[in-house]
Amino acid sequence: MSAPTIEPGAVRTGSAVEPALRVDSLWKIFGNRADKVIGTEDANLTRKQLQEKTGCVMAVKDVSFEVAPGEVFVVMGLSGSGKSTLVRCLTRLIEPTAGSVVMNGEDVTAADEGRLRELRRRHAAMVFQHFGLLPHRSVRDNISFGLEVRGTGRAERRKRAQDMVDLVGLSGYELSYPDQLSGGMQQRVGLARALAGDPDLLLFDEPFSALDPLIRRDMQNEVIRLHHEVGKTMVFITHDLAEALKLGDRILIMRDGEVVQVGTPDEVVGAPADDYVKDFVSDVPKSHVLTLRWVMRPAREGEADGAPALPADTIVREAARSVLAAEGPVRVIEDDRVVGVVDDEDILRVVVAEEH
Amino acid sequence: MSSTLTVAPAPAAKEEQPRIVEAPKRHTGLKLLVVLAVWAVGYFLFHDRDTLARPFVQLNGLDRWFNHIRDVIQAAGQTNWFWHGVVGNFSDFVNSVIGWLQQLFSQPAAGRPVPQVGWLGVLAILGWIAYAMAGLRSAILVLVGTLLFGVLGYWGDSVDMLIVTLLSVLVSMAVGIPVGIAMARRRWVSTVVTPILDAMQTMPSFAYIPFFFVVFGPGATCAIMLTVVYSIPPLVRITEHGLRSVAAGTVEAAGSLGVTRGQLLRKVQLPMARRTIVLGINQCSLAALAMAVIAALINGPGLGPDVLAGLTNLDVGQGAVPGLLIVVVAIMLDRTTTAASERSEQHSRGERRMSRRANRIVLGAGLVVVAAAIYFSHFYIQAAQFPSALDVGSQLADGINQVTNTVVNAIDTLTLAFKNVISYGFLNPLQGLLADTPWWLMAPVLLAISWVLGGLRPLLITLVCEGVIFGVGLWNDTMITLTTTVVATVLVMIVALVLGVWTGRSRRADAVIRPILDGFQTIPPFVYLVPALALFGASRFTAIVAALAYAAPISVKLVADGIRGVSPATVEAARASGITSWQMIRKVQLPMSRSSIALAANQGLLYVLSMVVIGGMVGAGSLGYIVYSGFTQYNLLGKGLAAGIALTALGILLDRSARAVADRSGT
């Protein structure tokens, strides 16, 4: 199948809107004199070579991306790919070695300590893989902890915490302690704590990796629901491709600290940037991810005039029934323009290919 | 196109292969054998020559110089701005605080035949404190224990013991907890303080008593200072450890919410480390008690002098009763602080028996009772002086003497046989080898051993320590102490391996043995001498048995933890391949807990050394006895100081070498 020339992702990150988050050539190298590595020949070495030569470990290597307001941006990679370091650099829980992070127009990397604290208190909240709850505080006091440290009064704190408890579905457990809750419930507390401060940006560091598959699915749906309800910008770290495809508006794939590909789920599956990504997505049921744009072919002169029409971003699986039911090819339209046609053959090629 | 035979394509994402460094072969066993052979041959050719043995009362230049320094300091104590103005006034201040507390609680006050607050008042105060800190069960325990003070006839000395111990613990807390916090928060503080703590903990307590004795002179101030110095390291360490081991994820999560450093400490780290810090106070108070007892040697107030009198008179009963009371105090301190620690854990989880309000009301009511008890005990003699009709202490002492005599006579042949086997089979030959070999051969042999076992660093440390020991002129005595230490450590490790493997493998054995070990560990070392003396009389052997009893618990626990720490998956896999229990121990569990065993040997060694030194007073002789004599004989103080220095060198030598071996086996 051929890669189309248009880039659906580009529409959403157009320069018309100020991005919620802009990361510009961000580097993180652990080790002594790490800042001396950047800009020299050594920066081009592989991780292993760099470690042998200088003792430094390259965690994040020249990463740049933008996240639009309201977007769910997923960073995906295997363990050790640098994704967790990357997300910590965004609020400088880990100090980046070089590069800049701009959040809602404010340069995070240039902020002084007080300003940075303010930023963490009000603008960006994080949900952690191992929850990071305070065992000596009740659910309610955990959720309101962020408000407490920024000096909100007790009555308001309680009220806000109660709202968050209701929002994440923990009503009745306000006075329980973390170790009395299941893993999924603990992560709901983590989620509520992050939401309590009403941040503009939510950062998730593999939040559901420690949970059972069924609970994980529930929590993913919970995030989708919350995203619909509160509409926050989210940066979501995961090593699970299915999770990335399910949640992400766009996906950034990392390997050994470097960006391998950034794109929408169908771009990643339809046009993998290299063998690494291709290997990764080989098990994905393509008909669940690809849209008609990826399977259509140009219409021949006069072909399918008056045939049924489907939008170009319809998922193949959802289009299959109508296409197979139609007599001949089906028109694919975008912006009221016919951009191509698909017939039974095109659909079956994608669906049947998964059987192999 | 497809073929029937396909070769799997190389995966696109190849896992990065780690870099592997190969360790060089060491041939430790062979090298050790060569060293031992050279040593043995040297011994046969040259033994009893150049052993540097020196008669007990003979002083060398250094000893006399130390004596001179002592005299100078004593003279300066009258006039000099530092010795009189600073040290003298400080001493007077602490002495007057202790004196005031004693007149308040334990000794007759001015113008009264009894203290201001009599036994009933003290009982009520202690009960109330225990209740407030740790709950009803601890309060009852403390009340019973305190009543025993009077019943066994040592009311005043027991309360003195508590005063010295608790005052030292308070000082340790006031200094130690802030230092521990600073160490956890600032890396440079930790870098500076940790080696100091190491040094303080490696030194046998006996080694620095002479220095405090010279600076502060005998008495309460010296006792308090010694006790604080001895009990502060565990508290500082555990406080730092508690704060540092607060889950990194939690600290990071708090950071992501924008806490300040102060908020992090107050709202996250301290609450989460509270239980650990209270455990630190537990360790601190047991250490304080142990030292407060030993402070008897420099006339510290308390029960120590009573035990010491029993030991020096070789009267087991006379030593056993106050010894028993020391154990009672230890149990009171241990149980109360442990319960307080458990309670702080429960509180932090919101599991309270009573509401905060109800608790306050009960405590308030208790205060009224305490006030009434104080009032009665101040004005009525019955409540002030413990009724002597209840005193059964002397009967108990007689009883213990009788029983001991009977038992000792009955098992005489057994203990004698044990003593002889160890003495002739092990102790005497080794002492011959170590102490009768010429020093110029012995020194290189020790260097070679530390090099073979540990490498270059231990070699250098050994060289420096040997230099110090040689320099203070106590080579022969140090070698004798080393012999006793080595023999006791070997015995400790035999016990530790047998009991440790057993408790590590069997839950049931663990349930029985562990509480016993815990009990043994709360007893101050000094007290062990009493039963050891009963069994073996005044001899080298008494110290070895006491050391065995004192050091075995910690080593057994470490070995057991190591055995238990072996991954269950590995054990299961080994069992699945059909090995016997003995093979499991030999081929899986022991090799995999090697680093724990090395640590057990290291800890055992240090515990043994400190006990062997204390045992110097009851027949073990050598360094310990020289230190002890420094306090009792005016002229020998200088030599006692020198022995303290030699002890320190020996402690560092043994600790560093053992640690290097442990580090090697850990990799």
3D architecture notes:
- The complex is a heterodimer of chains A (356) and B (667).
- Chain A is built from 14 helices and 13 strands.
- Chain A is an alpha/beta fold and 356 residues long.
- In chain A, α7 (154-167) crosses α8 and α13 (316-325) crosses α14 (344-353).
- The longest helix of chain A has 18 residues, at 213-230.
- Chain B is mainly alpha-helical and 667 residues long.
- Chain B has helices at residues 28-46, 61-79, 81-105, 119-134, 136-151, 155-185, 187-202, 205-216, 220-244, 248-256, 261-294, 304-312, 316-348, 356-379, 381-384, 393-410, 412-436, 439-454, 456-471, 475-505, 507-522, 525-536, 540-565, 568-576, 581-592, 594-614, 622-632, 637-666.
- The longest helix of chain B is centred in the middle third of the chain and has 34 residues, at 261-294.
- The two termini of chain B are 54 Å apart.
Tally of separate helices of chain A? 14
Query: What is the overall pLDDT average of chain A?
Result: 85
Low-confidence stretches of chain A: 1-14
Order of helices and strands of chain A: HEHEEHEEHEHHHHEHEHEEHHEHEEH
Distance between the termini of chain B: 54 Å
Mean pLDDT of chain B: 86
Question: How many strands, what sense, and barrel or not for the largest sheet of chain A?
Answer: 6 strands, mixed
Distance between the termini of chain A: 16 Å
**Category from helices, strands and their pairing of chain A:** alpha/beta
